[in-house]
Structures are given as structure tokens and as C-alpha cells.
Amino acid sequence: MNTSDIKVQVIGLGYIGLPTALLIAGAGIEVVGFDVDSKKIKSLQSGELYFDEPGLGALFNDAARGGKLSFSDTVTPANVHIICVPTPVSTEGADLTYVLSALDAIEHAVSHSDVIVLESTVGPDDCDDFMIPKINSWGKANTFVLCTERAIPGNTIYEMIHNDRVIGLNSGSSCEVVEHVYKSFVTGNISFTDVKTAALVKVIENSYRAVNIAFANELAKLADHSGFNVWKAIELANKHPRVNVLTPGPGVGGHCIPIDPYFLLDNTSKTQLIETGLTVNEKMPEYVAGQIQSNLEKEGISDPVIGIMGYAYKKDVDDYRETPAARLAESLQKLGYSKILHSDPYVKKEKIYSTSEVLEKAEVIVVATDHTEYRTLDFTQYENIHMLYDTRNVISVDQVGDLPLYCLGK
Ligand code: SAJ
């Protein structure tokens, strides 16, 4: 095929699918973005984005100006179909419902020898057991490729361009068209392997991070128990050239780290470390709520209005999928604290107040997300605030004056 004739259809225009479509169109390849949610399509057709990500607006305008980009709520013929839909966790591993329904949706539009690319995270055997047989059953000699995304929310566009990619395809398949599409916008190296190894690589990456964060969380609990500063200790340990301990926190959120490791555990009880790590992270909101309760009792504060600052699952983003802030609030409620207010400068959602509203109303402040702007707030201006608990080590003593400031692991 002449590469100038390639047309790409991106299926699923979320955090990964939309930037992927924009980058490919921006590189001069014709792209149609498809989503089952017609509200999203209408919004994109009228030039409006529905989530925030650094550089997304500029990328959108550039791609739109290039004339290679369109959006549709019906599937269209193309040569390469890139599926970017979520794979939540189920009791049996990755829940493939959205991937399989995306395949059903495109079946009639797929032609002989089109390439189907999957960017979603799946279990090591899922492609060979489910997706490839389904595509083969169409009898159209299509090639299946797994090219899982590796970009981090908050830096998605930079990472999509600069990170290395791993492309999985089974022997006998040709990948020139896919290589051309990815090389049009990826400057990192592209490695090729089989589909199962590519699926494993992705899950290993997120499991490694989950276990490392769990280790940091265990250290924070030890620090609370025996009175050392875990943040300083980790900083110094990381000066060793072969050590890189991550940081503790109130729990692990997002759509990947708390979920993907379960795909590796699918059908096996032979391993312990990963499962234990996930459990450690899942119990952090409850642990932190207990620490807050002890400190409230120490300060003689009962039944306070608690302002939880930060609802996004991590720093400086508006994404609140699986956010620990919500689970922290539930744990506090279980302990009997019912007056809880949430605030976040990025998240636009019902009952998420502005930073100043919460600062003016709360008697106790709990910092749940390490948003940069929290580092410069002056808490001494608010007479209503009687105590702070920082789960991310972002608040300094200079910001609180004489107010009691407690911190996880310190
Ligand atoms: N967290 C900590 N301590 C840390 C680092 C993170 O508690 O030291 C928490 C964060 O606050 C957050 C959660 O973990 O709640 C996850 O955040 P993250 O920044 O570690 O990861 P994600 O979920 O935003 O993105 C990850 C990335 N994977 C890796 O770094 C191995 C990204 O590259 C993947 O593309 C993404 O998962 C995905 O889609 O799989």
C-alpha cells in the first residue's frame, strides 16, 4: 500500500484515543475519530475539548488546521483501526467487554487485510484467546497488533511522542503500515515482539510501580510507628545509584496502577508479592483515616468540618478515576466524621468546591493530592483552621505558623 493513501480510524476518544488521533492527523495522515458517545463527537466537531491535558488544545487546533482530521459517531472504512477503550478489572482479569464491543462495532466497516491495533491494557493471553479468534472469524485476513499506550496523565502528549513503544504481532504478520503510522509521531524507539510478550510488558510496568509504591507505603507506616521521617529517609536512600523508592501517599488512584496488576494475577495463586502490594495500597485510605483520627484525639478536636484538599488522583491533573480522596472520605465517614468537604482546583464536578471555599469553612485540612498550588497557600490567614494533616508532604511549617501540622510517615 502507498503510505500516502493510509486512512486511520481511532475507536474511543478518551484520554489516550483523542491525543493519539490528533498526533496522527497532525503528522499528515488522514484520521477519523469514532466514539459511541455522540455528545463527545458533537463537542469535538464544534471545536470543544472535554478534558484537560497540557498541550491538548494546541494539538487540537494544529490537527484541525491540517485538514486531515474528522470525527464521527458511526464507524467508517479505514486501513488501520486503532482501538483505545477502557479495560476495567473483573474477577477473571481484564474485563474485555469494551474491546469486544468495539470489534463488533467495526466489523462491517473492516475490509480485507485492514490492520486492527489494540492500545488497551489486557492480560497476557487475552489477545490469543479472545481478540485474534474473533477477528479471524470474520475471514478477512486482517492483521492484529497490540501496541499498548505508555503515556502518563499530566504529560500524555510529551510521553506519547517521546516514549519508546512496544509493538506485539504474531509471526507471519506484516507491520509496515502500523510502523509507518506510529513512526509518523513517535520519536522514541519502537521494539517488536509477539503479542503475548507485548501484553506482559505493559502489565509488568504497572505492577512494578504498584509494588514500589506499596513498599514506600509500608515504610511510611513504619515511620509513623517508630518516629523517623520517611520522606527524608527515601530521599537519602535514593542517592544510591541503584535505588529508586517511590513516595508514600493516601492510596493509589488512576485507571492503571491499581488495576492492571490484577491482569497478571489472573488464574494463579502461585505469587504473593504483587497481590500483597495491591492490598497494602488499597488499605492506605483506611490507614490514613486512622492516623487522622488519632491526631484529632491528641488535639482534642471532636466532630470537625474536614476539608479534603485535592480530589484528582494525582498532582496537577483533573482526572479523578479511582481517586484515593474519595476512599479516604469514606474511611473517615466510617470512623464517624460526617462533615466532609472536598476541594480541587482542577476537578469540575458536583460538590467539589474551590480551594478558598474549603479554606474558609474547614476546621481541619487534609491534603490528599500534591497539587503544586498547595505549596504556597498561607493557612495562618484562616482562624477556623485548627489542624492540618498532609498525606503527600507538600505543606511546610512556614505555611502553618503555630497550627498543628501532621504528615503521613513523619
Ligand atoms: N503514586 C504514589 N507514589 C508515587 C507515585 C504515584 O502514591 O511515588 C500514586 C499517584 O498519586 C496516583 C497513582 O499512584 O494516585 C498512580 O499514578 P502514577 O503517576 O504512578 O501513574 P498513572 O496511573 O497516572 O500512569 C501509569 C504510568 N505507568 C508507569 O509509570 C509504569 C503510565 O506510564 C501508563 O501509561 C499508565 O499508568 C497506564 O495507562 O497504564
Model description:
The protein is an alpha/beta fold and 410 residues long. The chain has helices spanning 17-26, 38-45, 56-66, 97-106, 126-136, 156-162, 176-183, 195-226, 230-237, 261-265, 273-282, 284-299, 324-334, 355-361, and strands at residues 7-11, 30-34, 69-72, 80-83, 89-90, 93-94, 115-118, 143-146, 165-168, 190-193, 306-309, 340-343, 352-353, 364-367, 387-390, 405-407. The strands form 4 sheets. It has a 6-stranded parallel β-sheet, sandwiched between helices. Helix 7 links the parallel strand 9 and strand 10. The N and C termini lie far apart (61 Å). The relative contact order is 0.09. The mean pLDDT is 95. The chain binds ligand SAJ. Ligand SAJ binds at residues 121, 149-153, 205-206, 209, 213, 246-247, 249, 252-254, 256-257, 260, 313-314, 324.
Please state the CA-atom Rg, rounded to the nearest Å.
23 Å
User: Which sheet architecture does the biggest sheet show?
Assistant: 6 strands, parallel
**Span from first to last CA?**
61 Å
Helix content: 25-40%
- Whole-number mean pLDDT: 95
The class by helix and strand makeup works out as alpha/beta
Question: What is the helix/strand order?
Answer: EHEHHEEEEHEHEHEHEHHHHHEHEEHEEE
Bound molecules: ligand SAJ
Strand order of the largest sheet: 3-2-1-4-7-8
Low-pLDDT runs of 5+ residues are: none
* Counted beta strands: 16
Overall form = globular
Describe the protein's topology.
Elements: E1 7-11, H1 17-26, E2 30-34, H2 38-45, H3 56-66, E3 69-72, E4 80-83, E5 89-90, E6 93-94, H4 97-106, E7 115-118, H5 126-136, E8 143-146, H6 156-162, E9 165-168, H7 176-183, E10 190-193, H8 195-226, H9 230-237, H10 261-265, H11 273-282, H12 284-299, E11 306-309, H13 324-334, E12 340-343, E13 352-353, H14 355-361, E14 364-367, E15 387-390, E16 405-407
Parallel strand pairs: 1-2, 1-4, 2-3, 4-7, 7-8, 9-10, 11-12, 11-14, 12-13, 14-15, 15-16
Antiparallel strand pairs: 5-6
Ligand SAJ binds at residues 121, 149-153, 205-206, 209, 213, 246-247, 249, 252-254, 256-257, 260, 313-314, 324.
